[in-house]
């Protein structure tokens, strides 16, 4: 018997290490969270007495689904208890209901014993249990994804091929499932694929009117490195070339990077447009008041970490009354899906009118960002695909965007691990069963 530990940043990477080194017959006999990632313990060549007997895939999947349901239920119970501990002592002196199944009902307390007050529980224990349950759930998702993918390949090879093509584009499992369900009745593979792409184009949202044509206060938000300041320069130049400089103003809320202020100052000088700087703690409403006669005011914001208190203040300012700012999230299409998702969830607090996709000329995939915008119904207002100002700023066209996504797709066939990961993604988005 061969037993080995594997360390990785997350469960999917750890599972890949296990498959690469020990093969698909390896058994996971332990997992735990550690600093910086996860630890898996895997074994190969167990003695028959150690391993449970093999069962058909369908039965295994059913058992795994039951276990996953238990995990979700346990997480809900833990969360409910933790909230009760932090919020009040409401359970003191009351009978237990949901917690009773966790107690051995065969052990009877002495009749004369008075009800004991709930013992204080260390919150760290709940955190450790949550981490353990989270690791188990992630492990189950990876295993279920691999199982579902293997079953689909065997039962419906034509549909499996369509899944591969969508994975090469980079679409999420949930979006791929929805698109393939819409074309499930089409037998001709070529026609079905054309309809898949047509449905994908229809799911993309774009504004009815270009933002700078609507006018008003427009703020560009997003993490550092997404291209906010460069995109703002392109928008400003586009506006000046069409309407002149008299009705445009620029505002900078980025006092954290001297380079950003200098770039905006240079832009204002070149375009002959006034630039206003707002420092942290200063009133944005007061700064905007002298600019209310301008037809368009473009605001450049600071790209801050999600944990930075200054980000919360900045977002609250943009969402405040009297500002009436239309906020657009700038997303670099070169970013990984985890980065894109984190950016959306960090900045949605200010209220997003849409997004701007940047760096299309550098990207190797558009599927990830399209999946995010479609999943969150986030309109795509502009595209940027180069350094030229403003020539490399474009209005989005749905079918052109889909064609571009297909043209930059991966050239190689996706690995079995990638397909399993795609199917594991479905367990985050419940819906009809795959296949």
What would you say about this model in short?
By secondary structure, this protein is of the alpha/beta class. It contains 15 helices and 11 strands. It has helices spanning 11-22, 57-87, 123-155, 157-169, 173-182, 189-203, 211-214, 228-243, 258-271, 284-288, 309-318, 337-347, 367-375, 398-407, 416-424; strands spanning 2-8, 27-34, 37-44, 216-221, 248-252, 275-277, 296-300, 325-332, 352-358, 380-384, 393-394.
Care to describe what's here?
It is globular and about 75 Å long. 46% of the residues lie in helices and 15% in strands. The two termini are 37 Å apart. About 9% of the residues have low confidence. It has an 8-stranded mixed β-sheet, with helices on both faces. The protein has a 3-stranded antiparallel β-sheet with strand order 1-3-2. Helix 3 packs across helix 15, helix 4 packs across helix 5 and helix 6 packs across helix 14. The chain has 3 domains: 115 residues, no CATH class; 65 residues, no CATH class; 185 residues, P-loop containing nucleotide triphosphate hydrolases (Rossmann fold). By secondary structure, the chain is an alpha/beta fold.
Count of helical stretches: 15
Low-confidence segments, ≥5 residues, pLDDT <50?
46-57, 86-113
Sheet/helix structural class: alpha/beta
> Percent of residues in helical segments?
40-55%
Describe the main β-sheet briefly.
8 strands, mixed
Mean pLDDT: 76
SSE order in H/E notation?
Answer: EHEEHHHHHHEHEHEHEHEHEHEEHH
- Return Rg in Å: 27 Å
CATH top-level class of the largest domain: Alpha Beta
- Spatial strand order of the main sheet: 6-5-7-4-8-9-10-11
Terminus-to-terminus distance: 37 Å
Per the CATH scheme, the topology name of the largest domain is Rossmann fold
Write down how many β-strands occur, each being a DSSP E stretch of 2 or more residues.
11
Q: At the fourth CATH level, what is the homologous superfamily of the largest domain?
A: P-loop containing nucleotide triphosphate hydrolases
- Domains counted in the coordinates: how many? 3
- Strand percentage, roughly? 5-15%
CATH architecture of the largest domain: 3-Layer(aba) Sandwich
Query: How would you describe the shape?
Result: globular
């Amino acid at each position: 018997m061969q037993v080995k530990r594997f360390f990785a940043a997350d469960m999917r990477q750890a599972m890949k290490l296990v498959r690469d080194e020990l093969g698909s017959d390896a058994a996971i006999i332990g997992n735990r969270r550690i600093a910086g990632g996860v630890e898996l313990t895997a074994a190969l060549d167990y003695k028959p007495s150690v391993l449970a007997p093999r069962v058909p895939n369908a039965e295994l999947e059913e058992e795994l689904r039951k276990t996953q349901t238990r995990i979700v239920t346990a997480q809900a119970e833990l969360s409910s208890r933790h909230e009760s501990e932090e919020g009040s002592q409401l359970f003191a002196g009351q009978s237990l209901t949901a917690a009773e199944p966790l107690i051995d009902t065969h052990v009877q307390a002495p009749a004369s014993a008075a009800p004991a007050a709930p013992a204080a529980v260390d919150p760290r224990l709940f955190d450790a249990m949550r981490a353990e349950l989270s690791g188990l759930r992630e492990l189950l998702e990876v295993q279920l994804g691999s199982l579902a993918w293997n079953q689909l390949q065997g039962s419906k090879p034509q549909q499996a091929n369509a899944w591969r093509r969508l994975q090469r584009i980079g679409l999420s499992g949930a979006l791929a499932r929805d698109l393939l369900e819409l074309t499930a009745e089409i037998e001709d593979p070529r026609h079905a694929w054309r309809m898949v792409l047509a449905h994908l184009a229809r799911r993309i949202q774009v504004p009815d009117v270009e933002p700078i044509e609507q006018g008003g206060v427009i703020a560009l938000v997003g993490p550092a490195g997404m291209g906010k300041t460069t995109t703002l320069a392109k928008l400003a130049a586009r506006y000046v070339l069409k309407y002149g400089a008299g009705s445009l103003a620029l505002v900078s809320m980025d006092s954290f990077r001297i380079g950003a202020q200098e770039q905006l100052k240079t832009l204002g000088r070149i375009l002959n447009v006034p630039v206003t700087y707002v420092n942290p703690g200063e009133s944005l409403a007061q700064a905007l008041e002298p600019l209310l006669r301008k037809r368009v005011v473009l605001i450049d914001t600071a790209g801050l970490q999600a944990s930075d208190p200054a980000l919360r203040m900045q977002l609250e300012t943009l969402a405040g009354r009297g500002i009436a700012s239309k906020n657009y999230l700038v997303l670099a299409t070169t970013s990984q899906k985890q980065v894109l998702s984190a950016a959306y969830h960090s900045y949605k607090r200010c209220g997003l009118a849409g997004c701007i996709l940047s760096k299309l000329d550098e990207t190797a995939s558009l599927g990830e960002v399209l999946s995010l915008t479609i999943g969150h119904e986030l309109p795509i207002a502009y595209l940027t695909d180069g350094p030229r100002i403003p020539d490399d700023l474009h209005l989005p066209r749905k079918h052109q965007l889909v064609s571009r996504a297909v043209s930059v797709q991966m050239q190689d066939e996706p690995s079995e691990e990638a397909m399993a990961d795609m199917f594991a993604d479905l367990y985050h988005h419940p819906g009809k069963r795959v296949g």
